[in-house]
């Protein structure tokens, strides 16, 4: 899953990126409101973490612009402890959640997982199909109860397909959601990752619709 972190404090931004990347997320960082606004409306993010106090253009202004232009990506606001009025304004502007600074990284991680689950219309953090179980809290994958060893990119592909279970996903869409902005988005490598997943998890989990993409047809 691909996340935009719009945060001008370099240390905080890097800490957030490190934590989310360690969980198999793809993270882009915007350092100011102008860059955040551009990336948020031109790149296909699964969610956005948006600091209210960005330079050049504040977070609430950016959020209002996105919502006014039809961008419905889930947004979590980062706010100051005493900024209760800004939190109200942000929620009224279309934010889905907020987190007050200073915060603990495990809480941010849990909120990110919850927002992505809500976007997928799920309450449970665990996906399963046939003999494959995928726990989004730990990125652990079990096949008939036995742990499977997956690379970060294999986890990213599997996670996106599970979160979109029942919907056909093209190679191009997958590549847009597992590579960073300006990264090497070669959609042909998606086939390599899918083939590796099939070898590790079984050939029945991910179905190919020739010339169109891939689908996990049902998930519990």
Automatic annotation (TrEMBL):
Pfam families: Response_reg, Trans_reg_C. The keyword Phosphoprotein applies. Residues 124-218 form the OmpR/PhoB-type domain. PROSITE patterns: OMPR_PHOB (PS51755), RESPONSE_REGULATORY (PS50110). It comes from the Bacteria. The keyword Phosphoprotein applies. Residues 2-116 form the Response regulatory domain. InterPro entries: CheY-like_superfamily (IPR011006), OmpR/PhoB-type_DNA-bd (IPR001867), Sig_transdc_resp-reg_C-effctor (IPR016032), Sig_transdc_resp-reg_receiver (IPR001789), WalR-like (IPR039420), WH-like_DNA-bd_sf (IPR036388). Keywords: DNA-binding, Phosphoprotein. The modification 4-aspartylphosphate is found at residue 51. SMART domains: REC, Trans_reg_C. Residues 124-218 bind DNA. This is Response regulator transcription factor. It comes from Yoonia phaeophyticola.
């Amino acid at each position: 899953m691909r996340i935009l972190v719009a945060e001008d404090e370099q240390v905080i931004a890097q800490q957030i990126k490190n934590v989310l990347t360690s969980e198999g997320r793809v993270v882009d960082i915007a350092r100011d409101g102008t860059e955040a606004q551009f990336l948020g409306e031109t790149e296909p993010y699964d969610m956005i973490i948006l600091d209210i106090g960005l330079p050049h253009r504040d977070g609430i202004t950016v959020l209002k612009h996105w919502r006014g232009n039809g961008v419905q990506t889930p947004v979590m606001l980062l706010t100051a402890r005493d900024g209760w009025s800004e939190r109200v304004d942000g929620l009224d502007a279309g934010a889905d959640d907020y987190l007050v600074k200073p915060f603990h990284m495990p809480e941010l991680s849990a909120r990110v997982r919850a927002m992505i689950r809500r976007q997928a219309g799920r309450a449970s953090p665990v996906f399963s199909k046939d003999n494959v179980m995928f726990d989004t809290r730990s990125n652990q994958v079990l096949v008939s109860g036995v742990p499977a060893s997956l690379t970060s990119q294999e986890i990213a592909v599997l996670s996106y397909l599970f979160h979109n279970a029942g919907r056909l996903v093209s190679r191009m869409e997958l590549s847009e959601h597992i590579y960073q902005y300006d990264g090497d988005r070669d959609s042909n490598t998606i086939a390599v990752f899918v083939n590796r997943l099939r070898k590790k998890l079984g050939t029945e989990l991910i179905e190919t619709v020739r010339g169109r993409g891939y689908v996990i047809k049902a998930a519990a």
